[in-house]
Structures are given as structure tokens and as C-alpha cells.
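We emphasize that the prediction below concerns an isolated chain of 71 residues; any contacts that depend on oligomerization or on bound cofactors are therefore not represented. The input was used exactly as deposited, without trimming of termini.
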Amino acid sequence: SGVIQLSDGTLTINTSSNVTYPGTFSGQGTVNKQGPATLQLTGDSSLFEGVYIVQAGELKLNGTLGSTASG
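Result of the prediction step, given as a C-alpha cell string:
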């Protein structure tokens, strides 16, 4: 858990195992989901103003999404 601050940067998450992330994202960067597994977000990322991009696998939301997702 914790906060990942993405100013204008990109965080790429590429995993072959399912992952649950209870922390939050903030800032205006990009979260790039790759790999065949599922990424489940359970934290409050309502302050995140960036973009979620799903290139492969699945993005599940059980928390608060503060931005838009594409893919």
C-alpha cells in the first residue's frame, strides 16, 4: 500500500500473476497495464488526474478511480 506519485511520468505494470494493489495513485502521469494477468485496484485514487491504459490483461476496480481508462 501507499501512494505512488506520478507527476508526468509513466508506470508500467507487466505481470503474469494476478495482483491486488491496495494503495493509491496521484498526479497526472500514466499507468500502463501490460501482461496477461489481472490488476485489481482497491485504493482511493480519486486525486489521480492521469490516464490508465490497458494493453493486455484486465483492470478491475474495487476502489475509487479519479481518471479515465482506455484499452
